[in-house]
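Table 4 source record.
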Amino acid sequence: MAAGTRLPPSPAAHALDGDTAAAAPSVPARLVAVSLVAVGLGGGALLVWWAVAFHRANARLWMVPAGLVLLGTPLVAWLSVFASGPCGRSRTPRHPPLQELSSLLHWLAGS
């Protein structure tokens, strides 16, 4: 390769740069989304099964916390992902960490 020539960036690197406004989710991201939905539906189904079949006898009570965990975990995961907003954030922080550390040290020193 001649000096000064550059290879075009890979599609994965381009998507990470934030240059694309709406990049399509990758296959692993879709797989994670589908699995979170499946786990949540499984937890809901477990709770419904317990309520229909075992609630009157107060039997198999282990199904209640297991169903709540399976139902609630995907909801908390989705909430944390959407609350953090990873898609619209640029890769470079507004204030570099060293600048923040420097200003913190000046504040602690009382300068």
